Amino acid sequence: MNEKVEHAKKIVEKAIKEHKRIGVACSFGKDSMVVVHLARQVDPSIEIFSIMTRYKPNETFEYLREMNREMNLGLKVYLVADSIPEVLQGNDLNVELLPPEEFNRVSTESKARTGKEIYEASPDECCRLLKVDPTKAAVKDLDAWICGLRNTEGRTRKNYREIEEKGGLIKVNPILEFTEQDVLQYLKDNNIKLHPWYSKEFPDGRRYRSLGCGPCTNPIFDSQLERDGRWQNTSKCGGECGIHTQQLK
Ligand code: SF4
Fold it and tell me: What pTM did the predictor assign?
């Protein structure tokens, strides 16, 4: 474990040295909290940004707020909306609103056509408009970004590399080799509080192991892969929102 942490730190150090315009993406899931903590040990003023959506659980907004304050993250939040939700209002948070018109039009048309919410009928389109496009806005002035991707998280995460390049944008994945247990141990060792959903208990033994938007996040059994609870009952089950598969620049 110590070796993995030292290796991750070296990757972050090298990336920060090589790229002046670099930021850390933080979803406020467990893996993000590890990379944020690691990166800030190397550079306490490194940019931390978060893509939030209107469908994130309220607990995510509250946790984001709390951790931004406690860890003094200087967080920048990107959100497709015409106003800042009350839970994100205040001087301690920098929220950039992105125009909601396209999402509103597409989701209304989808509902009229299918009778279902857009995240059920067209989750890829929903993720494109609420996550991928906002990520493009977040990285547009960056040369590199640091993420909490891990190889053992799910069926779509097996073949990532520690350093990747797409369209001139470098992505750095310093904790790629961490297991779920390594992540939880790192957070415990460093007294970093977890998002409250990780400690929710279900009578059948399922628990939340990977967090996204509320409607697309389900508890799962320990025998499953961590991301198997994402987008259940859709063709996207256990898959990707698109920010790690699509070109962002
Ligand atoms: S995770 Fe679900 S609700 Fe969130 S943007 Fe993707 S499809 Fe929409």
Answer: 0.95
